[in-house]
Amino acid sequence: MFRKVSIKILLSVFVILLVMVVLVKIIDTKKGDRTFRNELVKVNADDITSILLSPKITAGKVITLKKENDSWKVISPEGEVFTADKNAASNLIAELNRMKPESVVATSKEKWGQFEVTDSLGTNVKLLKGNDVIADIYIGKFSFSQPRKMTSYVRLAGDKEVYGVNGFLSMTFNRDLDSFRDKTVISSSAGDWAKLSFTYPADSSFTLAKVENDWQVNGISADSASVANYLSSITHLSGHTFAKEKPPVDASHILKIEGNNMMPPVEIKGYYLGGGQIVIESNQNPGTYFDGGELASKLFPPKSKFIMK
Q1: CA–CA distance, 40 with 139 (Å, rounded to integer)
Q2: pLDDT > 50? residue 260
Q3: What is the pLDDT, as a whole number, of residue 2?
């Protein structure tokens, strides 16, 4: 009798232990499963009408990209309005849509500072559709690990979790105002060009014109290699450093490019201010002025450059 009871007790204990083992296995398996978000931002780029950026390097000052019809403007914290790089907004939105969480590195507010995803330490990005905020995220620091892996740390506004995502997001978002401005000086096809007029001081002006398949300088055949090199060097030309304002003097150098499908013609003006300071203006980027020493040397060559030796 006692032996039968002992066997029943042992069997009961065994069953209980077996159930406990199974439960522990199930719990461990669930812990190993992916329980965090599959994506952080998912928006339709066409729906976005403005982007508010508070880069860390601006100490919280807001840079605004705003859609106007089919183009974008970039607005400084002080309210100055400039033409935005045509790809700036789409690149920012695409970068956010591409983010995929690879890990959860923190689940409490106390750890935000460690990963630089607070208001003061991180870069805040808001995507708006009209007046509605449809995405709001903080981009913090990054870390580097072998082999060649960059991890950035991000947090959605209103959430406590901090996620690790692949990539160096600061390179895209933690930038100054000028990084988002249109830097176009010339964007045109040299195959359409038929005549370039160089207006310089004194008697140094000249024209470079295409007659059938022959380029000529003031009616004399030009060095074809020099012409080809020059044209290819300026067909897609960008500035790098912006001047603060329009120069207070008239342009001393003007390049006018005419040709097929070119109304209006491309017109570049050079303002020589003395002391080596030169400002460049292009009608392909109205209202924008570049500090242009290097640009000027590319745009305004002497006539001798094209004369056959």
Answers
A1: 12
A2: yes
A3: 45
pLDDT-derived band at 38 (thresholds 50, 70, 90) equals confident
**What's the confidence (pLDDT) of residue 30?**
47
Local confidence band at 22 (pLDDT 50, 70, 90 cut-offs): low
Closest residue by Cα to residue 242 from 200, 303, 297, 287: 287
Task: Tell how far CA 108 is from the center of its chain.
Answer: 31
> Rounded to two decimals, what is the model's pTM?
0.83
Average pLDDT over residues 10-27: 62
Rounded to whole angstroms, the Cα distance separating 99 from 244 reads 36
Six-digit token pair at 89? 């907004």
8 Å CB contact between 172 and 91: yes
Q: What is the mean pLDDT of residues 113-141?
A: 96
